[in-house]
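Figure 2 data, in text form.
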Amino acid sequence: MVGLCSTSWRKTKRLSMDAPQDALNKALALHGQGRLDEAINEYQQILCRHPGDQTVTANLASALVRAGKFDDGLALYEELTSQGEQQPELWFNYANALQRAGQIEKSRQTFERTLQVAPKFFPAALNLANLVRDAGDSETAIEIYRRAIALNPQHPKPRVNLARVLRSQKRFDETRVVLHEALSTENLSAELLYERAILGYETGATDAALNAAQQILKLQPDYGNAYTLIGLIEYERGNVDTAVRWWNELAKLEPNNPEPHINLGTLRQKEHRHEQAVGHFRDAVRRAPDDLGANLKLGLILSTTGHVSEAMQIGERLARLSPHRPEGFSLLANGLHEQGLCEQSRAAFDEALSKKTDDTTLIGNALFSSLYSDALSDAEILKIHSKLSLKLHNLATQNDEPLPCTVRTRKPGSRIRVGYLSPDLLKHPVGYFAEPILRHHDRENFEIICYSDNASTDELTKRLRNFELTWHECSSWNDVRLEEQIRSDELDILIDLCGHTAKNRAMLLARKPAPILATYLGYPGKTERPANDWLIADHHLCPPEQPLDSHERIARLGNCFLCYQPQPDSPDVASAAV
């Protein structure tokens, strides 16, 4: 939890005069050193001689919770608070213990009780705001962060966290105001400068972001997040070697930080260098065995490269360690999907989504997996897509409605501008099917622009790039930069070849960067994205006699929507064996 954590408690009734104060001091020292079993034993020994002492009982409860003995520790907290104790520190520690045990709603109630006991108790306000934020109630979190700021205007943490929540909702103007106020009242803080830098990065102001990150390193040369961000900016600018150097420097600076290894693994994964990617992700997990992000990255790549059993073992472990988090259930769902166990996979995706409703990758995986179910009707699959695609749309456009995309005024005789967006314009089924289309497009009436969302190239990619078209390699671009490019290209139609499959740009497409959006090739069904206008299909994929209630219109090709042609290195057709 980001914020203030519970500590040993000394603020209630002291030991009686004949009690051994040195024994309590010894127990507190062991507690502070993390030698929890020894501290627990010492506290219990004292209570044997002085039963009912509130100070010792409270510290024993804290040690039990830190040691993972939640039932015993929480029982002691319950006993203490039921006695009508009004010390805010006790209620605060109890709330933190409940959160650590995964009892989120009761933890929230106990933080609120702390503030009833002591309305100006800043640590409780801050931790309550963090808990509410993590539970997905952003509006309430924003309100409580503002309350925490009023209680302690000089403390940077509530301002940092408020900025993060506003930024996550794309309320960028409000974020700027919070950061301006914070930086004008504080001595320069690395955390606040980082928030200013990441805001610039996410809004496309990469020069300002880079300047802010470099300013951080002048103030605090060992601030790791600045290394990460500079690496990301350099990567997006095409300076891959420079990005790698920054991340390698961070790995030296913070040997136990999984972040540089996650970034390096993600880079290699985008380059289809899967063995290297797995190695980096394993390095990340070795440095932080319980890090959810590192484990998820490793589990996902193992699942998609055939190591399903190991991936599911990681998922099972994460589900045990963090039953209130989605990562473990997500890995289990992906593993079950890879094994063709569709109904079990769907149940695991539902479980994961119940833990975190705004995980865009998780939503996309759940949608794609639903297509494989033989227990769902077409109407049921469409209903699932309508619900989750609307969720993606709302996440992408919340409090920041997309810029209007007006139809381009075309001069008589000018060509229609058609864009194709795909991460698979290489030796991939989508690449194979796209090649004859891109080769034989009517160049007299159509101008073709391809947005290749993949850092890798192969022989097929090179052939596609040699056709008469404009090519943007955009895999290192964030959504802001890619949206700016698409809008500046003034397309008439943008055709997405990905749908809800891997590496999709659902959040960008929700902002409708072209006047007409269509889906084709890469997704065999309706996406149900509110911004999508058309699905290019055929009578096999969308039989006219089985209409479905959908806003997406269907453009049916005459025979088959998959236009395959043999590859140049295909062998000649052999004679039939006699």
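Caption note: The chain has a mean pLDDT of 89.
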